[in-house]
Specification:
With about 190 residues, the protein is α/β, with parallel strands linked by helices. The chain is built from seven helices and five strands, in the order βαβαβαβαβααα. α5 runs parallel beside α6. The model has no long low-confidence stretch (mean pLDDT about 80).
Length: about 190
């Protein structure tokens, strides 16, 4: 996933170009799509961090939202429309849209919304990385490594305080050995 890539989806070519220019001035890499079908194809190729989509266009923004949600695509979606109603805003948010901006666009509002959405993406990626690191460090493999020690200990006398201390010590040693082996392989 490219750090600052945005996909702008709107059937109005002049608005697409203006948004592209504004967003590039703000430091983002911008790709353009005229409808939801082309946008979905581009999503899979480009893997943008953010999608800004119009609602009313061929293959609507709502349909694009459905496809993104159903395809487990890791991106944030901002919906833009000239036909703002509370019902469409609520529906878009329920389908996974991050925010809702009305036309005519106030580019200061759009820039702030994009900035917040990118911060959200950063946080989501950080959480995924931290979870992966925790899983790698304390996940199933660590338990499997300690399982052999538990088996040895259970074969000994059950319930003895000395046996419990010995087993606890052996488990800690085995976990340290597994961690060293993992660190040396990286």
């Amino acid at each position: 996933m490219t750090t600052n890539r945005i996909l702008v989806v709107d059937d109005d070519s002049s608005l697409r170009r203006v948004m592209k220019m504004q967003l590039e001035e703000a430091g983002y890499e911008v790709a353009l799509a005229p409808d939801g079908d082309q946008a979905f194809t581009m999503l899979q190729e480009l893997q943008p961090r953010l999608v800004i989509t119009d609602l009313r266009m061929p293959t609507s923004g709502m349909e694009l939202l459905r496809r993104i949600a159903g395809g487990n695509i890791e991106t944030t979606v901002i919906v833009v429309t000239a036909f703002a109603t509370i019902e469409t805003a609520v529906e878009a948010m329920k389908m996974g849209a991050y925010d809702y901006v009305t036309k005519p666009l106030d580019f200061d509002v759009l820039a702030l919304t994009v900035h917040r959405a990118m911060e959200r993406q950063n946080l989501l990626e950080e959480v995924r990385t931290l979870c992966s690191d925790l899983d790698e460090r304390f996940g199933f493999e660590s338990i499997v490594g300690a399982q052999r020690v538990f088996s040895e200990c259970s074969a000994k006398r059950r319930g003895s305080r000395n046996t419990i201390r010995q087993c606890s010590s052996k488990v800690k040693q085995e976990q340290a050995r597994v961690a060293r082996a993992r660190d040396s392989s990286q």
